[in-house]
Amino acid sequence: MDIARLKERITIEKLTVKVDEIGNHTNGWEDYYSCYAYANTYMVDESAGKVDYENQTIAFSVRACKKTKALTSTNFRVRFKEQAYNIVSIDMMNYDNKEIKIRCKKEVRS
């Protein structure tokens, strides 16, 4: 793994459930892990042959460690340059225990 290319700082956030003083449950994101990553360029797709919104995706390559090996696509997301990205898939790179590729889609805010 070429660690010199890991130049972008990302923060991985974990979905947590918080309970207030009267027992209400709310979902929220809290910082889980911050590291340097290699960010591949954005890919923009069109939906159904028309341009009604951009589907921006990006792939991050990070060094493998205990925290990154515990990632799942349902309970984590990535924050990069003040934008949230939902994790679509996690590739363990042939289980070589050196690098993990995280494919993400830009979170659409309504």
Topology:
Blueprint: E1 8-19, E2 25-39, E3 43-47, E4 50-63, H1 66-69, E5 76-80, E6 83-91, E7 99-106
Antiparallel strand pairs: 1-2, 1-5, 2-4, 3-4, 4-7, 5-6, 6-7
Taking pLDDT < 50 over at least 5 consecutive residues as the criterion, the unreliable ranges are none
Q: How many domains comprise the coordinates?
A: 1
Span from first to last CA? 39 Å
> Strand-and-helix sequence, N→C?
EEEEHEEE
List the total number of helices. 1
- Spatial shape: globular
In what range is the share of β-strand residues? over 45%
Strand order, largest beta sheet = 1-2-4-7-6-5
Q: Overview of this structure, please?
A:
This protein has 110 residues and is mostly beta strands. The chain is 4% helix and 62% strand. It is built from 1 helix and 7 strands; from the N terminus they run ββββαβββ. The chain has a 6-stranded antiparallel β-barrel. It starts with 7 loop residues before the first strand and ends with a strand.
Quick tags:
mainly beta; Thrombin, subunit H; 6-stranded antiparallel barrel; 1 helix; 7 strands; globular
Provide a short characterization of the protein structure.
The protein contains 1 helix and 7 strands.
